[in-house]
Amino acid sequence: MLAKSGYNVAWNPRSKAVLKTMRTLKTTLLLLALALFGAAALSAEDSLGDAARKARMSKPAPAARVRAFDNDSLPKEGGLIVMGAATPPAPSGKSGEASTGDKDKAKGSSAQERGKADADWKAKVDEEKKEIASLERELSVMQRENQVRAATYYADAGNRLRDEKKYAEDDRKYRDDISNKQKDLDAAHQKLDQLRDEGRKAGASPSSLD
Questions:
Q1: Cα–Cα–Cα angle for 82, 84, 87, rounded to 5 degrees
Q2: Fewer CB near the last or first residue (10 Å), C or N of the chain?
């Protein structure tokens, strides 16, 4: 037995073991708390780093700075280079005159072509009109001859008695000839009308189709 501060303390070897165990447990708990705190700090740091990177990526790129010039900042030597589309040079007087000359030449050529086309149409129309006039004369002659023949036949009673059959045959022949000639004349008139219609569609002048 030991005596200390007026109290008698009985030394128990088991008490020493308990105290040692408690100190070990405290140390372990402290290390575990420090480890958890360090892990939380690292995780927070990673989260903050990711957030910073996302913020930098989402931040719009700075607009290009446009430099403004005034009378004081304009360069005195070397001139000022302006970027952009170049202004096309103005056409020279010679090229303008050439363009006008080409237009006048084209107009003259077009007028000549129209004049030639009108002359061709007029020649075709005149040719067909001549054909019509010839057929009209032939038909008129045939009609007059038939009238004279009939007048001569009916003026002489003896002729009617002697040549009645021959006169009937001749009369049928004359009538057939006159009918065929009239058909030719009608066809010629129709051809002339068709020719004029084609000329109008082709742009021929009215005077060339008269």
A1: 95
A2: N
Rounded-to-integer distance, Cα 122 and Cα 110, Å = 18
Helices (H) and strands (E) in the chain, counts: 5, 2
Token code pair at residue 125: 């129309």
Phi, psi of 21 (to 5 degrees): -65, -40
Structure tokens at 206: 């009215």
Q: φ, ψ for residue 186 (rounded to 5)? A: -65, -40
Which pTM value belongs to this model?
A: 0.45
Using one digit for the tens of pLDDT, what is the confidence trace for 91-123? 555 555 555 656 655 565 688 888 899 999 999
Give pairs for 121-124: CB < 8 Å, separation 24+. 121/199, 121/202, 121/204, 121/208, 121/209, 122/207, 122/208, 122/209, 124/195, 124/199
Alpha-carbon gap, residue 180 to 176, rounded angstroms: 6
- Distance between first and last Cα of the chain: 163
Other Cβ atoms less than 10 A from the Cβ of 135: the count is 19
210, 125 Cβ separation under 8 angstroms: yes
* 106 burial via Cβ count (<10 Å: 0-12, 13-18, 19+): exposed
